[in-house]
Design a protein that fits this description.
6-stranded mixed sheet, 9-stranded mixed sheet, about 400 residues, 11 helices, homodimer, about 25% strand, Ubiquitin-like (UB roll)
């Protein structure tokens, strides 16, 4: 498997585009993205578990109930959530897109991201659709840009892999940044592949993967109302359709996981105001659930996050977060190390502090990617969670988001 | 019932003191507090549910297992937690205190607050005990100061009330500021009363009260390792001992609740870096558990907290936090208003936005105390939670706490 250029247009038969249509006031910022497949594709999606759900999610859920989709339409700048006419607007978005592409409205995945509770005007979307469709091409980058909100960089990746000797491609784009927390923790991820795989296997693969990736990523502990991870598989690679478990599905899942882990790390590292990517690796858990709960608790602790921002080796806060995680852990067996490209340092052994060089710890924690390595000593379950530091800029960005 | 001066020394037969003994480097900051009763008192305490527990909690739990105590010794600057010799040091603190006061070591409540995982040196405590005992008097204020960590102001209050025609007094001191989250959310609260009440009733009253007060207070979502609320009742007011439920217990619980709610509001309003006290009042819950979960979820949301810091009426984040709280709520029935001394404004009705004056909302949200009023429309259960805004200073304080 190799990482290649191209995001959502790397796989055969997919085109994408992104434009500024006028939902956002800032004309420099794109606000409407389109991804489409030459043929109707098998499709699956996973949605936020927030009871307050964006109207686009309801419409998407209905549209891909049959396991099929051909296009994704997504705007930024407005979440189309908690609005009286939300469903109607989301359906209009599908209709307009379908008409412009000459496809069925029921084959459109619709998504919105941005401020909650302000009516979304359909006019700029309607007016911009012609340009959006004309712009369709290999340009995954414009689509990746058009779904960004407070993200500081676009997130796109693709991989090439082999299924039964046939070369397949899988790629994706994501927007993240704020309101990121299990479950789900994305906000929006769109994946495309030319691999032939049944709708049922596609859904299974996506759900399994999301549990260990997007559901283990937290920026700020707030689970969004509009989270969605959607995947389309158009089969144009020409492999025999994956219809059951086995080597072919394993190869597909490995490719999927490579893409999603990369996106998670980039969502976390580009969290609102973040200066560092934090990764909590838990080993020695008595079971997977325990390892996951511990990893998430550490990565979500405001105090751990602020300490990492300050490059302060305050491991007591890591222990504290393990202690209140709700997991059954024998604290007297817990070891904690901090790891980065500058090295590794053990700071806590068997639940108590050990002598360590503060200077060396500082050097390690001043890097951009920090691993908090936790060993529970209770078994062999492992889990990884991703997050970021808590900074002045997080407060700045969220102190006045709407204006 | 009236609020009076005097904190933990307002009730008959209680003395207190606070000094700098040398645990902290800064000589301006007191770091050792003592509270004692003239006679052995009935006592009860509630502790953190964090699995990582400070050594002092273990020792206190053992010492008041018989429902009796006569003194509280508490240091700041070091939590005596996650240290190999923690229990030994905590027991030494009790011994030294008991010897100096001429009481039993088993009647001492011991507590520590500060950094986790650094050995606590007994020497300065031993050396300072003489001065600490000599300083005992009506000075609740020095004790309140000596337990502070990043608190910016001391927290003490007392009330006078009547039980069966006999005048009683109940007072308390608290330290809060960071690592504050249900359950418990304090870090340390010491209460004294001269009311005669059995150990069993005292424990019952305290546990019941804490569920609606300290367990509904969150500064940063991190549950401390050293939280403790302890109360001593020496019976010196001379009322008939409260041994069962009834009017007398009701009067006691009302006094207790007045003191604890005041302390909660002050802990929240003086949360690390806070510029505002936030209060979330939930009405119309289908049951108490639902109302509580919703109130806590709103008050804990980093995004709501940052919006309040910025005086931004971003009510979508309140809805979002209700939606991911885990409570069963019909979002289409939810109303949200913001309230302060500048007025009240409805921003969300039946789960959707309403037109409101942004100018008026700003005026309301610029005040120091903000109420987020949530109506669920599902029943008549109510609950209140307390918290604070998320600010640049929270990040600053916690980015480099240890140095």
């Amino acid at each position: 498997m190799v990482i290649i250029e191209g995001g959502v247009t790397a796989a055969k038969g997919f085109k994408a585009s992104g434009i500024h249509c006028g939902i956002r006031k800032n004309k420099e910022k794109k606000d409407l993205a389109l991804i489409c497949s030459d043929t109707v594709a098998n499709a699956a999606a996973v949605y936020t578990k927030n009871l307050v759900k964006g109207a686009p999610l309801t419409v998407t859920k209905k549209n891909i109930a049959n396991g099929k989709a051909q296009a994704v339409i997504c705007n930024s700048g407005n979440a189309n959530t908690c609005n009286a006419n939300g469903i109607e607007i989301a359906e209009r978005m599908c209709d307009i897109t379908a008409k412009a592409l000459g496809i069925n409205a029921e084959d459109v995945i619709v998504a919105s991201t941005g401020v909650i509770g302000q009516p979304l005007d359909i006019a700029p979307i309607e007016a911009g659709m012609g340009s959006l469709v004309s712009a369709l091409g290999d340009d995954s980058c414009s689509a990746a840009e058009a779904i960004m909100t407070t993200d500081t960089r676009k997130k796109e990746i693709a991989v090439r892999f082999t299924v039964d000797g046939v070369e397949c491609t899988l790629g994706g784009i994501a927007k993240g940044s704020g309101m990121i927390h299990p479950d789900m923790a994305t906000m929006l991820v769109f994946l495309t592949t030319d691999c032939a795989i049944s709708s049922a296997m596609l859904e299974k693969a996506l759900k399994t993967d999301v549990d260990g990736t997007f559901n283990m990523t937290s920026v700020d502990g707030d689970t969004s109302t509009n989270d969605m991870v959607a995947i389309m598989a158009n089969g144009m690679a020409g492999n025999t359709e994956i219809c059951c478990e086995g080597e072919a599905l394993d190869a597909f899942m490995k490719a999927l996981n490579t893409v999603t882990v990369w996106l998670c790390r980039n969502i976390a590292g580009d969290g609102e105001g973040a200066t560092k990517l934090l990764e909590c690796r838990v080993k020695g858990g008595k079971d997977l659930a325990t390892a996951k709960v511990v990893a998430k608790s550490v990565i979500c602790s405001s105090l751990v996050k602020a300490a990492m921002f300050g490059a302060d080796a305050n491991w007591g806060r890591v222990l504290c977060a393990i202690g209140y995680s709700g997991a059954e852990v024998d604290v007297s067996k817990v070891d904690v190390s901090f790891v980065s490209e500058a090295g590794e340092i053990l700071v806590c052994k068997d639940g108590a502090g050990v002598d360590f060089s503060e200077e060396k710890a500082k050097e390690i924690l001043l890097k951009d990617e920090i691993v908090i390595d936790v060993t529970l000593g209770d078994g062999d379950a492992v889990s990884t969670a991703w997050g970021c530091d808590l900074t002045y800029d997080y407060v700045k960005i969220n102190g006045d988001y709407r204006t």
